[in-house]
Write a structure and sequence with these properties.
two-stranded antiparallel sheet; 69% helix; 1% strand; globular; transferase; metal ion binding
């Protein structure tokens, strides 16, 4: 039987999702009206697949909804603690202990969102964008938020380097993934939910609460971004989403020494992010093999390759969503598995990606020669 404590905490989490969803959907409506006046319009050209000029700025709406809900939550925790049910009030102290950590993550994610917004408006060079990403990820690490999995990753230098690489990698992975209507937001939503499950399984609530706000904000954006999209998140949104997921996976808890949980749960981020990382690595390899810069956009992404196999864009997005979910579901079990079980789950995800890779390079039987 589910306890009252679980019902109350679960209800609070659902409230965060719903509130962020409503705010995000509303902010997106406002952004769609104001985007033309701000010059935030994506004009079809080059490798872009949309046919009509489409407003950018969805990332600004996602950021606004996320910040607004987190600010309201902080206000309630700070000034309305006495009115909260005891099941929630007992967690407020722990939340305040990590308020500075959340402020750092949100502040840095805000800076990277504004960089993306400038890029949407003026088109910045890739060296400047990458430099800003590395700088902000480095600041995150220097603030104390870094990987501390186990030896040798608990060494500050090695753990810091891995953390910077992870955050910058995910930021760019979602920037690359934002190439088809509804794709980056839906994959981000699925990933965030899986991270919530993997962390709640070991009793963590801080990062899952923030992730649930992000889930609601992404869901509200998808109301406007589903095919055919009426609003794009732009680089502002993809950079913000990737940075937040990267930072929150580092700040999150996957293993507790005083609990009966497996240390292999720390591998959850690799399972959940398997598809975005596969897309990033495969695109870079294709571009380098063809003698082109990996930083110049094209239509060689995972989603575009699926369309070349005969799928429609919505079918390609749903396929990637399902592969992301299938590859990441094992993350929900890692806290219960020993070394053999964890290897089996990792092998299952690798096999899934292997099947995808084979299908991608096989001849399309439905296309005439």
């Amino acid at each position: 039987m589910v306890s009252r404590d679980t019902w109350i905490v679960g209800g609070a989490g659902l409230s965060l999702v719903l509130f962020a969803f409503v705010l995000s959907a509303w902010f997106c409506s406002l952004v769609r009206q104001w985007a033309p006046r701000l010059g935030l319009i994506d004009i079809p050209a080059g490798h872009k697949g949309h046919k009509m000029p489409t407003p950018l700025g969805g990332g600004l709406a996602i950021w606004l909804a996320t910040v607004a809900v987190l600010a309201l939550g902080a206000s309630v925790a700070g000034f309305g603690r006495g009115a909260l049910p005891i099941e929630l009030a007992k967690h407020v102290g722990g939340v305040w202990e990590r308020a500075g950590e959340l402020g750092t993550i949100l502040g840095l994610a805000t800076l990277i969102m504004f960089m993306g917004l400038v890029d949407d408006r003026l088109t910045l060079g890739w060296r400047l964008r990458l430099g800003v990403q590395v700088a902000l990820a480095t600041v995150l690490v220097l603030s104390g938020i870094r990987v501390t999995l186990f030896w040798p990753f608990n060494h500050p230098v090695l753990g810091g380097a891995v953390s910077v690489l992870w955050v910058v990698g995910l930021t760019n992975a979602f920037n690359l993934l934002d190439n088809m209507d509804g794709l980056a937001a839906s994959v981000g939503l699925i990933a965030a939910l899986l991270f919530v499950g993997a962390q709640v399984a070991v009793g963590s609530l801080f990062a899952p609460a923030v992730l649930l706000v992000l889930v609601g904000a992404l869901a509200g954006f998808l109301v406007h971004n589903r095919y055919p999209a009426r609003l794009f998140m732009g680089d502002a949104g993809s950079n913000f989403l990737g940075f937040m997921l990267g930072a929150l996976t580092i700040a999150g808890t996957y293993f507790r020494y005083n609990a009966k949980s497996s240390s292999f749960n720390v591998l959850a981020p690799l399972l959940v992010m398997a598809v975005p990382l596969y897309d990033t690595v495969s695109v870079i390899i294709i571009r380098l093999r063809e003698g082109r810069s990996p930083f110049v956009g094209d239509r060689r992404h995972f989603s575009h390759r699926l369309v070349e196999r005969g799928l429609t864009p919505p079918q390609a997005v749903r396929t990637i969503d399902l592969v992301t979910l299938a590859g990441g579901l094992g993350a929900l079990l890692l806290h219960q598995l020993d070394a053999v079980g964890a290897c089996v789950v990792l092998a299952q995800t690798c096999c899934l990606l292997g099947v995808v890779a084979i299908l991608e390079v096989s001849r399309n039987p439905f296309r005439s020669e």
